[in-house]
Design brief:
alpha+beta; six-stranded antiparallel β-sheet; 6 strands; globular; disordered N terminus
Length: about 190
């Protein structure tokens, strides 16, 4: 029980989980209604070894950590507006120094009971705009921020934060929470 965090954040068991929760907290600090954000994940020990000046500017002291024991998120330039997310992700190629990547995305979602009531005509291909409008107007809609990360080796982690339960202690984590986005991020490492 001594290793439980005192600030209400979930306990991070792996460097990837720690990075996802760090990104979630960063996004939470900016509030809601934010654009999608993309992050490169770099091995902190390698960053200190290969770029000591940059590591110093970022405030990373040499703690003697082993490679792979800590990941540092590095926010990328703002994403282009208007481009579908899957099309944008298909244009990304990461340099070898990048161990993984992560993304924060805000979306509206419906509980399972409301999903079952989606009119059939809105479930057809080409009805995405009408479906989005229907969801936005639904009384049971929930706003969610998803933070999804993947490593080059395929390891995945996600964090979900509901706007109505906007507290660090309420963040859900798990590798399979947002499989579609995780797949799209993993594809950025395929050659």
């Amino acid at each position: 029980m001594d290793n439980l965090p005192t600030d209400g954040t979930p306990l991070a068991s792996t460097p990837l989980t720690q990075a996802v929760l760090e990104i979630d907290e960063y996004a939470a600090g900016m509030g809601w209604d934010q654009p999608t954000r993309l992050f490169a994940l770099v091995d902190t020990a390698q960053l200190r070894a290969q770029e000591p000046e940059l590591a110093g500017q970022l405030g990373f002291e040499d703690t003697g950590q082993q490679p792979g024991s800590s990941l540092t998120p590095v926010e990328q330039d703002e994403l282009p507006t208007g481009a579908p997310l899957d099309e944008f992700l298909a244009t990304i190629a990461w340099p070898d120094a990048v161990a993984g990547c992560a993304m924060t995305v805000e979306r509206l979602m419906l509980p399972q009971s409301a999903e079952e009531s989606v009119p059939e005509e809105l479930q057809r291909e080409g009805a995405e705009e009408q479906l989005a409008k229907w969801v936005a107007e639904h009384s049971e809609r929930q706003e969610v921020r998803m933070t999804v990360a993947v490593l080059r080796d395929g390891t995945r982690e996600s964090a979900l934060r509901l706007r109505e339960k906007d507290a660090s202690a309420e963040v859900l984590t798990g590798a399979g929470l947002v499989p579609g986005l995780a797949e799209a991020l993993a594809a950025t490492f395929e050659e």
